[in-house]
Amino acid sequence: MPVGPMAMFGALGAMAIVVFLVMIAIDSVFLWLGAKFAKIEDASFGKAFIATLGGFIVSAIVGAIIPYIGGLLGLIAFLWIVKTVFNTDWGKAIIAWLFAIVIAIILMIIIGVIVGLSLLAAL
Questions:
Q1: Which of 20, 21, 23, 82 is deepest in the core (most CB within 10 A)?
Q2: What does pTM read for this prediction?
Q3: Neighbouring residues of 53: CB distance < 8 A, sequence distance ≥ 6
């Protein structure tokens, strides 16, 4: 049974939404760990998910609307959302965000080494 172009378009859209939500969930784990490291009280995965989702959406909109400094304003908006959702101060919000980035970079390096060694072993 042939599949029409609209069905393919719908399937791609649904897949994009699922990939976006998985990406938000993974980034939320990093932000949650960063919040724990920054000693933010009542840090939970749910709060991290809300902060990450809201932060991504708001920073993307701000970055798209305002040329040149939109990226910086988007980052400030993201940090403000982290600060608000976790009910903390600017310092702890920045520490949580920075630690989340460090965790993600370390994990990417580890995965890269593992995959690289696996590829070398296959040769």
A1: 82
A2: 0.81
A3: 24, 28
